[in-house]
Structures are given as structure tokens and as C-alpha cells.
Design goal:
The complex is a heterodimer of chains A (298) and B (438). Chain A is of the alpha/beta class. Chain A has helices spanning 5-26, 33-44, 50-66, 72-88, 111-124, 141-152, 165-179, 196-212, 231-243, 261-269, 290-297, and strands at residues 99-104, 129-134, 155-157, 183-188, 217-225, 247-251, 273-277, 285-287. Chain A is built from eleven helices and eight strands. Chain A is elongated. Classes of the chains: A alpha/beta (298), B alpha/beta (438).
Chain lengths: 298, 438
């Protein structure tokens, strides 16, 4: 299976939906106002935000009118280009070692599972990896993470349930510094972005990393469930405001959801996607590929 | 509130030309419904569900007479809201109770929807009702899921039946046996999160329902779910005959349109909503609140209702007459303040009142509750004659009024100026028949 094989086959399930509808759209004789209205709806129904969908369709319509184009294939390629332009609004992330990756997000998006997979990913690249179990809130979260650490064969730093997550981060950093570990991945408790006290806790953890490990390159990745709708925007906005977000981990793309909100996220908030999760096995993760993603959708 | 302002402003714009005639026309409804449709889509309501809904509402709205106390915008929102509420069903948080014990409840849903936490909440809920629930741990896949259930159960003070990483169907069966033997009246089966397109795991759930008698199958859905909610709910319902839905994570800022989609495709009642991380954070589902939330309107809708209650048709007509005759007095002014108070007097209320939203921006200062009290005191310190004709109020009268009301001459001046402005405004809006100009 090729590099993007899994993403592609994961998206294939969704593919039938959107491309089938697109085919229906394009099978019409005329590309008129109604066509653009339907296209707009098609984009919205892949969870792309209403405003980005409108923007894409407006751009497309202007271009087609200007160039007097009626050719369907050309419209498809231009639509792909518009989507790509949206994704391109966000700059790619390059990981520089030693790296600290803090994974944040709302409850149940798949942070712990993603961390297991990302740990295995870096371990397979020959990097030394440590995981910090700083989700001290959810019942048995550290146990769950420990199973993943075992699977990925990486070290884990944990504490008892209910202890201060910042203390766990502190311990993990001391350990990482002593052992010259390449990558430290911090698991955090799922929190709704509307809970300000929990966001404060996150800020505190962030400050501990910055203060204790200034030589490390600190990345904050937000995990987003592909099944999510328009709320993804609000999640990224609020988390970004609290601690600053460097990238997105898009999880659960093996379902039927399209994760289309990332198009609007890149376009409206300029936050790039870094990893994509496509299943529950340890190697069900890959780097995000824009063209692969768009081609997969079509 | 921002979203509401978005929708209501757009609607206000559409209806801005509509001032004199009292019925909603087809064209206006069509334009308005486009905005409503966008509002629904932004709330994650499935596109097909939104379309069907709009068609239904449009039929109802066309030709409706506008109530005296509402603007066309409010009228449309009111219709939309009522239909939404109706579509989502009644408040129904009753769980099925089987005549042969134990009653068995099975959870199902995607990964991360919140099943395990919900198991704990439900167990506690049942325990408080005097039931004796048993949790059965059938999530044998996710690492530490059983541990999580045990910890949650301990917090709720209920028992867990678990057999480690065994066969879930077998564990469910043994769990029910165990419950019978030890006198548990309700069994809650926690299952692993799964994708609706995962053939093997869906079959596993089917096998559980074939092996034990399951009375209630609760589909647990993350309220932040997007357009895909329809696919998920449809598949789960087709394969498992879901009996009810629970919405989780409603304590976030999602508008939760997914629940409308789910209700539309499954027809199954939404039984509970989960609104926090504490085990007690489980609520009955309130369709009316959800409707306002989907439209992004918070409490404004209840304010519309309050306005209807607080302002009687009589008062409206009286006020209208006064406007026509330009005989609006300080007494009427006072009466309006009283009405405001009755409605809970708030900034949002002022702004949503007909003619106010787009024309006058009310500053926070103007509707300070304390200030309303002082204004009342000032007016009440005036003589009947002064209230009817404020022009006679000279400096010595002002001093008396200020002393009587415990305020200052400046404040009396300010009130008189405010009253003058209101009168001016009324003159301007004289031709806006049927509207209540605050």
C-alpha cells in the first residue's frame, strides 16, 4: 500500500457519497445558477463552513463567467484548485528536535489513541519518544495510555489519578532533559473549550513547558474528530486563543464523515493539518497530504 | 447571541420594506427561509433535513397574520421555533421498564461519544430513583475501558460485572444471569465504540440483542456531530432498532443541529442530554431549549413569549391611539417601564423590540436596572399636571422633584430629555401601524 494508500482507501468510503453527488451535478446539461446553488450545498454537506463554501462557489462562478467556461472537467479541476487554495492558506509544520508535542482537544476526539499512534510513528523513524500521561482527570486515562506506550515501545511518565497535570508535565520534562529524548508527547484531559477553568489549567501546563524546557521546540496540536460539524471552528478558535495551536490531528477518518471542516479551518483560521488517523491499529496514522485528501474526496 | 443577531438582522432587512400590510407574503417568506436555512446548516442540521423542514414551515408561514406585539422577523422566528420544537418531540426522559426483571439497557454509538461516562450517569440516576442497577462491561477492545467503567461505577456507588477481555456477547449474557441471581433490577450494558460501517462490530451488537432480551437501546451521540450524524443514526437504527437517543457534551457551545437530523431520520425520542463532567450532569431533553439553541437564539425566544404575555392587546391599542394623537405623557412613559420590568427588562429585550433592533442601539447604561428605578421615582415625584404636560416643569419644580425622589436636578433634566426624544421617535414612527415603540 502506497504512502497515502490508507488515507485514500479510508476516504473511498466517503468518496462514493460526494463524488456520486458531484457526478450527478455535472451530468446536467447546463452550468447555471442552480448548479452553483447545488454545489454550495454539496460543499456544506461535507461540513465545510457556510462562509467558506460560499467563498469557494463565488470564486468559481466569477472565474467561469469571466472565462466563459462551460466545460465540466475544467470546472471540476478549478473546484479542486479552489479547495487546494483553501488548504494552502495554512503553512505546513516542520518538526524540529528536541520536540514537545502537547495534544489537546475536547472530550472523546481520540487524543489518547492518536498519541499512541504518533509515538509509534516517531519511534519507527528512529527517534526516542516519551509520553506524559497528563490526563489525570478521566478515569483510567493513564492506564489506557500505558497500553499504547507498551504497544509503541516507548517510555511513559505517569502519576496518580487526580494529581496536578502540570506536575506530570514537569516530571516528564526533567526526565526528557536527563535522557536527551527527541520527542515528548503530552496527553491532556479532554475539555470542552467553553470551560474556562480547564482552559486555564491548559495554559498553566503550557507555561511549565516553556519555562522548564526553553530549548525544546514546543508544538500544540489539537485533535479533531472527523465526525464533528461546524463546531470544529469554535474549538480551534478558543484553544488557539488560550495556548496557540500549531497543527491539527484529524481523527476517525475511517468513518463516513468527510472532515470537510478542515477546508474552512485552513481557510479561515490558517491552521494546518499535520496527522490523519484512519483506524484503531497502531499504524493507522499518516502525515496529511493535501492533494491526496482532495483527490480522495473526489 | 452573535448568531441570533446575524439571523434576526438579516430577517429585519428582508422585512424592512414590510411595514403597513399585516400578512407574510410568499416572496418575503422565501427570502426569509433562505436565511433560516443557512442558520440551520450552520448549526449542523443535515442539508436534506433542513430542506424538508423549510418546505414545511414555509407552507405554514405564508399568509399568517402578524401578531400585534411582534415584528415580522419575530413572527417568522416564532413559527420556525415552534415547528422545530414540535419536530424534536416532547420532554421524554422516561426509560422503558420491563415487566420481567431485570430491565436491560444497552448503550451504543461511535468512539468517543461518551458511552462509558453516560453509563455511570445513568446508573446514578436510576439509583436515585430507588433502582438497583448493574453495569456490565462489554467494551473489551479499548485499552482500559473496563477500568474506566469500574472507576465511574465506584463514584456512582454501583456494581460492575466484568470478565476481562472476553467475548462481549457471552459477557452480556452472564451479566444478565448475574443480575437475576443477585437481585439487580436494571442492567446497563456498556459496549465498545464502533463505526457504523464496521460490519463485524455491528454484528456483535446484533448478537447481543439476540442473546439477551434488550429493552432499551440507547444511541449515544456527540452533540458536536456534523452532517454525518444522519448516516450514523440511520445505520445504527436500521441494524439495532434503537429505542432512544442521548445527546452528550451539550455543555459546549455547539448548536447541536445534529439532534434534529437524528430525530428526523430515526423518529426515535431523545431521552436525555448530558451537560457536564460530573455524574449528576444528566438532564431530561428539553425540545424548546434545543430549538432556540439550534437557531442560535438563547433566551431571546422566551423573551418573545414574555413580550406576548406582558403586553396586552389593549395596551397596544391605547399606545397606538396616543401616538396618533401625540398625547404620550410621562405616565405612559412610566407604564412602559413597568412593562419592561415585567418582561425582565434587559438590553436584549430592548433591541429585539419592534423598530428598535435596527434603528436604535441601546447602550448598556440606558437600561441599567437601578436607573429604571430612579426614573420611576422621579416620575412618581411629579404632580399629575406635570406628568401630563412636562413643559411646565421649571427650575423650582425640578428642585422639588429631585428632592422628593432623592435624585438630582441633572437627573431630572436627563429624564425629561429622554422623554422628549421618545416623543420625537414616536412622531417618526407614527405611520408604523401596529408596532409598539419603546
Amino acid at each position: 500500500m502506497g504512502l497515502f494508500g490508507k488515507l485514500f482507501s479510508a476516504l473511498k468510503k466517503t468518496k462514493d457519497g460526494i463524488s456520486e453527488k458531484l457526478r450527478l451535478l455535472f451530468s446536467r446539461d447546463k452550468i447555471g445558477e442552480e448548479f452553483y446553488d447545488d454545489l454550495e450545498e454539496l460543499l456544506i454537506s461535507s461540513d465545510i463552513s457556510v462562509s467558506t463554501s460560499m467563498e469557494i462557489v463565488d470564486n468559481l462562478r466569477d472565474k467561469m463567467i469571466e472565462e466563459r467556461v462551460k466545460d465540466r472537467d475544467y470546472v471540476v479541476s478549478e473546484l479542486k484548485r479552489e479547495l487546494k487554495d483553501c488548504l494552502d492558506m495554512a503553512d505546513d509544520v516542520e518538526i524540529v528536535y528536541p520536540a514537545v508535542i502537547m495534544v489537546i482537544g475536547v472530550n472523546g476526539v481520540g487524543k489518547t489513541t492518536s498519541i499512541g499512534k504518533i509515538a509509534a510513528y516517531y519511534a519507527s523513524k528512529g527517534k526516542s519518544v516519551t509520553i506524559a500521561a497528563a490526563d489525570t482527570f478521566r478515569a483510567a486515562a493513564a492506564d489506557q495510555l500505558e497500553v499504547w506506550a507498551d504497544r509503541a515501545k516507548v517510555r511513559i511518565v505517569r502519576s496518580s489519578e487526580g494529581s496536578d497535570p502540570s506536575a506530570v508535565v514537569f516530571d516528564a520534562i526533567s526526565s526528557v532533559k536527563a535522557k536527551h529524548t527527541d520527542v515528548l508527547i503530552i496527553d491532556t484531559a479532554g475539555r470542552l473549550h467553553t470551560k474556562s477553568n480547564l482552559m486555564e489549567e491548559l495554559k498553566k501546563m503550557s507555561r511549565v513547558v516553556e519555562r522548564e524546557f526553553p530549548e525544546g521546540n514546543f508544538y500544540k496540536f489539537i485533535a479533531l474528530d472527523a465526525t464533528t460539524g461546524q463546531n470544529a471552528l469554535s474549538q480551534v478558535e478558543v484553544f488557539d486563543e488560550a495556548v496557540g495551536i500549531d497543527g491539527i490531528i484529524l481523527t476517525k477518518l475511517d468513518g463516513t464523515a468527510k472532515g470537510g471542516f478542515i477546508v474552512s479551518l485552513c481557510n479561515e483560521l490558517q491552521v494546518p493539518v499535520v496527522f490523519v488517523g484512519t483506524g484503531e491499529k497502531i499504524d493507522d496514522i499518516e502525515l496529511f497530504d493535501k492533494d491526496g485528501f482532495i483527490d480522495g474526496i473526489f | 447571541m452573535a448568531v441570533f443577531q446575524g439571523l434576526s438582522e438579516k430577517l429585519n432587512h428582508i422585512f424592512s420594506k414590510m411595514t403597513k400590510h399585516g400578512r407574510l407574503t410568499e416572496l418575503e417568506i422565501k427570502q426569509a427561509m433562505r436565511e433560516v436555512r443557512i442558520a440551520l446548516l450552520e448549526a449542523d442540521v443535515n442539508i436534506q433535513v433542513a430542506k424538508d423542514f423549510i418546505n414545511k414551515v414555509s407552507e405554514k408561514a405564508v399568509g399568517q397574520e402578524i401578531l400585534k406585539s411582534l415584528s415580522p422577523t419575530q413572527q417568522v422566528i416564532k413559527i420556525v421555533n415552534e415547528e422545530l420544537t414540535e419536530l424534536m418531540g416532547s420532554t421524554n426522559s422516561k426509560l422503558i421498564v420491563s415487566s420481567t426483571l431485570p430491565t436491560t439497557i444497552m448503550m451504543c454509538g461511535l468512539q468517543g461519544a461518551g458511552k462509558t461516562t453516560l453509563c455511570g450517569k445513568l446508573a446514578l440516576y436510576l439509583k436515585k430513583q430507588g433502582k438497583k442497577p448493574l453495569l456490565v462491561a462489554c467494551d473489551v477492545y479499548r485499552p482500559a475501558a473496563i477500568n474506566q467503567l469500574k472507576i465511574v461505577a465506584e463514584k456512582a456507588g454501583v456494581e460492575v460485572f466484568e470478565k476481562g477481555q472476553g467475548n462481549p456477547v457471552k459477557i452480556a449474557k452472564e451479566g444478565v444471569e448475574y443480575a437475576k441471581q443477585y437481585g439487580y433490577d436494571t442492567v446497563i450494558v456498556d459496549t465498545a465504540g464502533r463505526l457504523h460501517i464496521d460490519e463485524n462490530l455491528m454484528e456483535e451488537l446484533e448478537n447481543i440483542t439476540k442473546t439477551i432480551r434488550v429493552d432499551e437501546i440507547l444511541l449515544t451521540v456527540d452533540s458536536m456531530t456534523g452532517q454525518d450524524a444522519v448516516n450514523v443514526a440511520k445505520t445504527f437504527n436500521e441494524r439495532l432498532a434503537v429505542t432512544g437517543v442521548v445527546l452528550t457534551k451539550l455543555d459546549g457551545d455547539t448548536r447541536g443541529g445534529a439532534c434534529l437530523s437524528i430525530k428526523a431520520v430515526t423518529g426515535k425520542p431523545i431521552k436525555f442530554s448530558s451537560v457536564g463532567e460530573k455524574l449528576t450532569d444528566l438532564e431530561p431533553f428539553y425540545p424548546d431549549r434545543m430549538a432556540s439553541r439550534i437557531l442560535g437564539m438563547g433566551d431571546v425566544l422566551s423573551l418573545i413569549e414574555k413580550a406576548q404575555e406582558a403586553v396586552t392587546e389593549d395596551q397596544v391599542q391605547k399606545l397606538e391611539k396616543k401616538m396618533r394623537e401625540n398625547s404620550f405623557t410621562l405616565d405612559d412613559f412610566l407604564e412602559q417601564f413597568a412593562m419592561l420590568k415585567k418582561m425582565g427588562g434587559a438590553k436584549g429585550l430592548m433591541e429585539m423590540l419592534p423598530g428598535m433592533g435596527t434603528k436604535i442601539k441601546v447602550s448598556e447604561k440606558d437600561i441599567d436596572e437601578k436607573k429604571i428605578e430612579r426614573t420611576k421615582a422621579i416620575i412618581l415625584s411629579m404632580t399629575k399636571k406635570e406628568r401630563n404636560d412636562p413643559s411646565i416643569i421649571n427650575y423650582s419644580r425640578k428642585t422639588r422633584i429631585a428632592n422628593g425622589s432623592g435624585t438630582s436636578v441633572q437627573e431630572v433634566n436627563m429624564l425629561l430629555k429622554q422623554f422628549d426624544q421618545t416623543k420625537q421617535m414616536m412622531k417618526m414612527m407614527k405611520n408604523r401601524k401596529g408596532k409598539l415603540p419603546f
